[in-house]
Amino acid sequence: MTRPAADVLAELTALREADPPTHGGRVLSYVYDHGRPELDRLAEQAATAFLPVNGLDPTTFRSVAVLERALVARARTLFHGDDDVVGSVTSGGTESCLLAVKTARDVWRAADPARAHSRATLVLPTTAHPAFHKAAAYLDLDVVAVPVDVASGRASAADLLAALDAAGPRAALVVVSAPSYPFGVVDPVAEVAAGAAARGVACHVDACIGGFVLPWWGDVEPWDLAVPGVTSLSADLHKYGYAPKGVSLVLHRGRDRHRAQYFATTAWPGYPVVNPTVLGSRAAGAMAAAWAVGESLGDDGYADLVARTRAATATVRAAVDACPGMRVVGEPTGPLLAVADDGGVDPFHLVDALRRRGWLAQSQPAMTQPDGTTLPRTAHLTLTAVTDDVVDALAADLVRSADEVRGVTPAAVDPSLVERVLTHGLPDELAGVMATLEALPADVVVPALVGVLQAAIDPGPSA
Ligand SMILES: *Cc1c(COP(=O)(O)O)cnc(C)c1O
Question: Which of 147, 189, 434, 443 has the fewest CB atoms within 10 Å distance of its CB?
């Protein structure tokens, strides 16, 4: 019954060959490529060395404690935290954000015994990452989503602070992004953090995507732990930290806050449980790889990768600016661009046209905000250091794709598509599906999306 290893590995290789290329800059979201094969080898070897250990217990596997401490220390310096800043390595940005929310909720509850069983309120801009909505859903907080400026995509400090005032004593946390994923724009961190501090409310900076770019980007207004009033910060090592997937950081100002992140219990007949993060058993491979990549790159290495990323971003931006019918939303700080229709280039058609040329951009549906204003439909591009190697081809194909779809009527909304996608899977051309998702109400779209993804991993009837 056993299969030869070579046979098993060949099957895995074949599966991977059918995936989009994770290297080479063709996939403009999800993957982060530095373009240096020797750094990939280092990450692989570091991860392999740590595959067998369990980060659950850093008193047994002291190697994990050493690496975690080193990563936190490095990040604390990078993000201008003082000796009062501590934190944890997590499995990813979602977990870092979830733990920031859990910490804020528990600190809020501990401040007043009457709050022990009350719901706290989480205030965020509409552009905040859904990880915060997920955290609120898991941890029973109310969310107040505050509209951002439609033209710039940037959160308004005054509006966020007004929302804190409206929430009154229930306000436990306000979130700002550095930068936001949808539009790549850095929110007014200093103003929000100062206002939050004055109200006794915690302030989280979500630098999941920007944390390992902004320190070397240049021309960025203060956004990190140097800003008074910022109580926590998340930064993903598995994005521009160029580590393999499964590693992020959450930092807190104050050991008391960090302690509120922990879960500990002796209420079972087994070993005493002390978990800093959501997971029990913790993989340490990605953590070791993150540490190794950081040691190898050093400050100069990151600076060099960011310089290339910035140059590539400027080239792509210039191509969009020069091309009639489309525009970049706002003034992004960092390597994320959202391209909106500006007289004839439908972003969903643009994404399909780019895909036909071998580039995977991401469709972002329009969103009506709570105040009735609408954030535009866009095509999202995440650019990395390796983009620099292919940037002329990307810029040229963006223009060719725009030329091809300029004036083409946006895809029609077709509710019957929902059923067809559920039974036949997703088509290659996604413009119609995206237009339909955008138009239908959430109570139709959300179960349909879950259905599609559930079907993707359903083994079906047993043979
Ligand atoms: C990626 C991202 C997250 C969540 O990170 P995951 O690693 O995908 O779980 C949170 N916030 C922002 C701004 C992000 O870009």
Answer: 443
